[in-house]
Write a structure and sequence with these properties.
Chain A is α/β, with parallel strands linked by helices. Chain A is built from ten helices and five strands, in the order βαβαβαβαβαααααα. In chain A, helix 4 links the parallel strand 4 and strand 5. The chains are: A alpha/beta (208), B alpha+beta (414).
């Protein structure tokens, strides 16, 4: 997974950016260096997995401003904030705005690699989750309205017989629909079904 | 011939009774007139006596030799001697030794030329009081010529201690502000330095760590290369620690905030700069808003901003004709901010200088180091306010300071 992840280094100091990228490459990551927050905004690919190593103090847009802008735009790339001095209010603001961590310059390679690994892990799990959600949604979209009604009742814990009574249909018809739902959603048990509905609440799908 | 024969005839013709009556009437009238004149004279003299007796300044009258012939009651307050004991003493003996020649020469010059010397009505001297201490006074002389043809001199001695004290206080305040400015300058420098130094230290740490990691794979655990690389890292971190200690030290100068009146801070600073504004012949217009809301701020730091802004405005007008040197200071409140405008008629901002002027080490002055406005900005930002610069019309620059209004317990602007 390392090969796919890109470490985005945003720092106006070329020596620091270079050092971080050399270290990151030595660990097998791909690296993209940006000299300013603006360069990053215009230059980066949001679909590229990875993380951002972001300097707080830069000419032009500051690291904190870029962080806020990305958060507002729905970009979930984990951010490792770096600062030349551990300004506590600044660190608190960065962390509460969703930064993974706050590295005080100068930092050791060990700390950097640990934080990068953690950020990449967070990014991967966020992307997996998003992928599962998208996958579940596209499967959910294949269901007919009748199948969706049955799905909803199953998730609410009703038995086939109860659903049949509630909808005024035969148990046989409900069993048919139920197996079609299971097949279309690719699930083999109720537990899997409930798990999947958690990612895509049916009402989202119904309200098309 | 006897000498007596040469004398004119002194005999008077015997007056007639009518003549005698007439002369008698004339004499009586003269007596009445003289009595009235004497009465008037006494009235006038009493009046002058009251003036001298009740004057807050010490008044001494002396003869041409400087011998005291009159001392008013305030002489005792100033000098510690009773007026009676001063009579007969020499005025010059009461003057501190280093100044004694000044009034002596002035009196001599007057007596020889008949003209008042330049310092006649304003000499700053020290007088010796009864306890031996030296008191700074302002002395002005007056003179009157007596019937005998000799002059008498009056000397007014005004105690300069209260004025000196006020001057001293103003000087101290100004120097305290200058000191605060210096501290802040050092703080700005150190903070900038800390940031700048941490960058190369970061690179050093990372490269050394990387080299260390790779060297461990290539060489023996006992290789001195590893020690050397390890030392690079620890020393780089030591340098970083020194920087962070320095920052800690500077942080101790953090502002103490309390609700204060911006207008009062402005007036305090203008009071300090009054004489400098006059010396530089700058026309000052002050329009401060009535009922200005308070701001949460450190009084000294806000005064520092105002001082720097006004000094900056004064410096901007070095090359402007005195008649066109104007500074306008104005305050106003917006919904959540209190604003101060400082407008000068000077050289204006350089092209694109609206932001640059606040950057440290940016200056257009031959003598400046370019840190005054940088201090203004960092103080404004610490107070969650801001400072802006723009060109004024028809010439000069306008600086706008905005500081948040005081918030009460519930967080409401008041």
């Amino acid at each position: 997974m390392n090969q796919h992840s890109v470490i985005n280094v945003v720092d106006d100091d070329p020596a620091v950016a270079q050092a971080i990228s050399v270290v990151s490459r030595s660990l097998g990551y791909r690296v993209a260096v940006y000299r300013s927050a603006e360069d990053f905004l215009y230059g980066h690919d949001p679909n590229q997995p990875g993380c951002i190593l972001l300097d707080v103090k830069m000419p032009g847009m500051s690291g904190l401003e870029l962080q806020r802008m990305l958060r507002d735009a729905g970009v979930t790339l984990p951010i490792i904030m770096m600062s030349g001095h551990g300004d506590i209010p600044m660190a608190v603001e960065a962390m509460s705005s969703g930064a993974v961590t706050f590295l005080e310059k100068p930092f050791r390679m060990k700390m950097l690699t640990e934080q990068i690994a953690r950020a990449i892990e967070i990014d991967n799990s966020l992307r997996d989750e998003r992928e599962r959600t998208q996958d579940a949604r596209s499967r959910m979209d294949q269901l007919t309205d009748k199948e969706r009604v049955v799905l909803e009742e199953i998730v609410h814990g009703l038995t086939n017989k109860q659903i049949a009574e509630k909808l005024g249909l035969s148990i046989r018809a409900i069993e048919d629909r139920r197996s079609r739902v299971m097949r279309k959603l690719g699930t083999s048990s109720i537990i899997e079904l409930i798990e999947l509905v958690k990612h895509v609440p049916p009402n989202q799908s119904f309200s098309k | 011939m006897s000498v007596l024969d040469c004398l004119p005839d002194m005999s008077v013709p015997t007056p007639t009774p009518e003549d005698l009556l007439k002369q008698n009437r004339q004499l009586r009238r003269q007596v009445v007139d003289l009595t009235a004149a004497v009465g008037r004279l006494k009235e006038t003299s009493d009046l002058y006596r009251i003036v001298a007796d009740t004057a807050a300044d010490a008044i001494l009258c002396v003869d041409e030799q400087g011998e005291i012939i009159y001392a008013n009651p305030s002489s005792k307050t100033l000098l510690g001697y009773s007026p009676a004991s001063l009579i007969g003493k020499s005025l010059f003996d009461l003057i501190g030794e280093e100044h004694r020649h000044i009034p002596r020469r002035a009196v001599q010059s007057f007596l020889s030329t008949g003209e008042e010397p330049d310092n006649w009505s304003g000499m700053e001297l020290n007088v010796i009081s009864s306890d031996g201490s030296l008191i700074p006074v302002d002395v002005s002389f007056g003179e009157v010529r007596g019937e005998d043809g000799h002059y008498r001199f009056s000397g007014y001695l005004r105690d300069l201690r209260p004025r000196k004290k006020l001057e001293e206080q103003a000087r101290e305040r100004l120097s305290a502000l200058a000191h605060a400015n210096r501290l802040k300058s050092v703080g700005e420098l150190a903070s900038g330095l800390a940031h700048e130094l941490n960058q190369p230290l970061s690179a050093i740490c990372l490269y050394a760590d990387l080299a260390l990691t790779q060297a461990r794979e290539l060489t023996e655990e006992t290789d001195p290369l590893l020690d050397g690389l390890e030392t690079i890292v620890t020393q780089a971190q030591r340098a970083a620690q020194i920087i962070s200690l320095l920052r800690e030290l500077i942080r101790k100068n953090e502002p103490r905030r309390q609700p204060i009146d911006l207008n009062a801070a402005v007036q305090a600073v203008l009071h300090l700069l009054k004489s400098e504004l006059e010396t530089r012949r700058i026309q000052l217009t002050v329009r401060l808003a009535d009922e200005q809301p308070q701001i949460d701020a450190d009084r000294t730091q806000v005064e520092q901003i105002v001082l720097n802004l006004v000094q900056n405005a004064m410096d901007a007008m070095e090359d402007v004709l005195p008649a066109q040197r104007r500074i306008e200071i104005m305050s106003q409140a917006t919904t959540d901010m209190v604003e101060l405008h400082v407008v000068d008629s000077g050289c204006g901002l350089p092209e694109g200088g609206e932001q640059q002027v606040f950057e440290n080490f940016f200056t257009t002055k031959a003598q400046g180091i370019g840190i005054g406005l940088g201090i203004c900005r960092s103080i404004a930002e610490v107070h969650r306010g801001r400072i802006l610069a723009e060109n004024a019309t028809p010439q000069g620059a306008r600086f706008i300071l905005q500081l948040p209004r005081h918030q009460d317990e519930s967080g409401e602007s008041v």
